[in-house]
Amino acid sequence: MSDMTLFENSALAQSDLFKSLQEVDDNLTGGSGGGMRRISLRGGRFREIIGGEQVNVNSSGSLNIVIVNAAKVSRTYYAGAYDPENPTPPQCWSSDTQTPAPDVPTEQRMASRCGDCKMNIKGSGQGESRACRFAQRLAVCIEGQYDKVYQLQLPATSVFGEAKDGKMPMQAYARYLKAHKTPSMAIVTEMYFDENAETPKLFFKPVRPLEEAELKQVLEAKDSDDAQRAVTLTVSQTDNVQAKRDGAVGDDEVDTSNPAPKKSKSKSNNVLADDVEEPKKAKTASKKAEPVDEDLADLVDGWDD
């Protein structure tokens, strides 16, 4: 009998204890399934990244996903310009946009509070932008592939902003779904690029409700280790130096194959990716969305009307 088949027919191999022992091997091989899966937005294309390597490019401009988890909005500051040949780790970062994360070394912290940081001032970055950029990490599954969880990191303009002409950034989309009593995890969402933006910027819209069998798979994906890792901010994910920072905020926001475009003076949608107002609490006097008691399937049928 081969040494490699010692446990082949053993009841021990089917136990939870034995499976937990194999987690060490997952770490040794670089993580679950050969490394974290990502969807990068670099160059205005949906790029499937596995273990730092690009394995697929979707050039259609849209992709159907299911959102299985989401982190709070975070912030990241990189000192100096991004060099794809010599990627460097971030100097400071925050997982809640209020204070530096606990794992940021004291000597690297730009301020004790993000609101007091000089990198939070307009003009500290390119043009009138802030050098410390907002982003949000999502755990998503591609429609029909619910056994695979991807990390999707949204730049600021894909998160903030109001809905205009039916085009919704993430927070506007989430408010829309909440007003219609529809969990984002229960539907297929189409994400698509803003064709008028100079840097990668996404809009979101609902497509259809999940079938019962699909929803069960999505709930399993939500509780997976991959889903948790996808929304957890760590230096390795933010930096990802070994993968040349692919999927990091700066790389996803800017097409590094060309010089950075000059900021337009017109009031168009062609804004720099981080040229957005710092998020503010909604005013209590704002109009509340009317509750809707429609059936979910009927509601989806009316979304494209």
Question: What is the fold's blueprint, element by element?
Answer:
Elements: H1 16-21, H2 23-28, E1 37-40, E2 46-50, E3 53-58, E4 62-70, E5 74-77, E6 92-94, E7 132-142, E8 150-155, H3 156-159, H4 170-179, E9 187-193, E10 202-209, H5 212-222, H6 225-230, H7 235-239, H8 249-253, H9 296-303
Parallel strand pairs: 1-8
Antiparallel strand pairs: 1-2, 2-3, 4-7, 4-9, 5-6, 5-7, 7-8, 9-10
Explain what this protein looks like in three dimensions:
This protein is of the alpha+beta class and 305 residues long. Helix content is 20%, strand content 21%. It has one domain. The protein starts with 15 loop residues before the first helix and ends with a helix.
In short:
With 305 residues, this protein is an alpha+beta fold.
Keywords summarizing the entry:
305 residues; alpha+beta; ten-stranded mixed β-sheet; globular
The number of helical elements comes to 9
Q: Structural class per helix/strand content?
A: alpha+beta
Secondary-structure element order, as H and E? HHEEEEEEEEHHEEHHHHH
Low-confidence stretches: 1-6, 26-34, 236-277, 281-297
Total domain units:
1
- Overall pLDDT: 75
Portion in helices: 10-25%
Q: How big is the Rg?
A: 21 Å
Overall geometric form: globular
Strand content: 15-25%
